[in-house]
# Entry
Amino acid sequence: MENLLDILDGAVAKWGDRRALGIRRDDGSHAEWTFRELERRSRFAAWRLHALGLRPGDRLLTWAPSAPELPAVYFGAIRAGLVLVPLDLRMAPDAIERIVEKAQARFLALGTGRDAPDPRDVRLDRFPTATIDALTAEPDASFARDWAVQLDRWPRPERHQLFELVFTSGTTGTPKGVMLTHGNVLSSIEAIHRVIPPLEHRIVSLLPLSHLLEQAVGLFYAVEVGADILYVRSRTPRVIFEAIRDHRTTSMVLVPQVLDLFWTAVEREVDRAGRSGSFGRLRGIARHLPMRVRRFLFRRVHREFGGELRLLVSTAAFLPPALQQAWEDMGVIVIQGYGSTECGFATCTTREDHGLGTVGRSVPPVQVKLADDGEILVRGPNVFDGYWHDEAATKAAFTVDGWYRTGDIGRFDRKRRLILMGRTKDIIVLPNGFNVYPEDIENELRMAGIRDSVVIETRPGRIEAVVLAPDTHGIPQGGDIPAGRPTDPEASPGLVRARIDDTIMRANKKLSVNQRVAGWRLWPEADFPRTHTLKVKRDQIRAWAAVDQPLPVREEAAATTPTAEV
# Structure
């Protein structure tokens, strides 16, 4: 393929009148488009964007919740030769203002519905705008008689041409725009084909389409293989689980936090039925059996997910091995990919080799190696061309011989599978020179019972854990991504303290002397601050912990016996 438009053309030729996209709205209403309808609507969008005066190379902002009209606008913009600039619904207003200015965008494609963003919130109310519904609507009197003939004569994009600018969140300083060509994204899709088995994919899409992972796997790859994609606008847990069940979902692309939320729901139902003990014992037996047998043993649970769920793809953040093991005990394979917006899929596990705690191997022609200090370096056709109008940042992102510097630290196991150890900026270097990786401690805390924690160094040599209150898992009504909910109102401060103290002491027994947690703080909100890909904003937590007053929790902890005062 030479461009992303070839994906849609091929899908129409193969799958034509098969259902491609659907949506389940808050009011229970549904809409469905075939592959042919998706192409039709994308052509309408392409013509309207051109009629508005946009020309190849112009930047088009998209700011919308997921719906069939949004992919149609994406493909329409590709056909018109435009450069997409997706805005995430969770971005701060000042970040969006800086992105609009830096991208020199000319037009905004805006979502609709009660969960759609309001341009007035970011001072874009006078910016040239059209809704995605209007752009993809049936032709009207403004269309030329021979519009379709004219459109077919437009030059098609080439593999080296810019397809998209994905900007960093821009919470501090000037946001950086990652320049992605058609070839960059196609290279990632080609790699995905080598690790995801051929299936009749039915997908429920929960990640925003502003996220490159959802674009690459949940849209472009899914369209190419003829998948049936369902968007869910509600964030009510009941509606989401009903959609997954009714759609008879086979595959999902998720970030670890959402994967954890689903597993928490499973555990709650088991606990409510009074079967926690037998459930745990059965898991221990199942993990030694073939996948099909595991699925049979947990057939009641699988029925709640439609009975067909077989594959979960996780990326964008650390996947705790215990969480992967939990799903695989039930016969659901969890594939974990590693990469970034700048390099797409760098490594990935496979259906045959999905070992716990690893992110697999690179897929040729992509190359991955480690620098002398352990930093992960990537080179290949998937790697971006640079940052938009930022030569200094581009130069800093590459080694002198052209390898992309990820900023992540890793190591290879004996089978040459990559194991992530954390970000270079997050490593804790103790006064004795010992390197401590926060993710290792956070994973041990999770194994002990604290699902959500951020490990930081509050002063030289002192390691502390900032934790969420127990049972703060759920899916809120607002926002585009699951987050947290208030803790159990009946849990007393003393009970919360005792539970966390006991859990940390159990974890410390399994950690080395240099890794042990000396104290803990209770995060004052239902969830940690997160990026639009649900990565925890560690800098904000470190800044909060550095302030002596006021603190919702003050602790005076011994090095081996953590205590806290609420």
About this structure: The chain has three domains: 5-195, 332-424, 427-545.
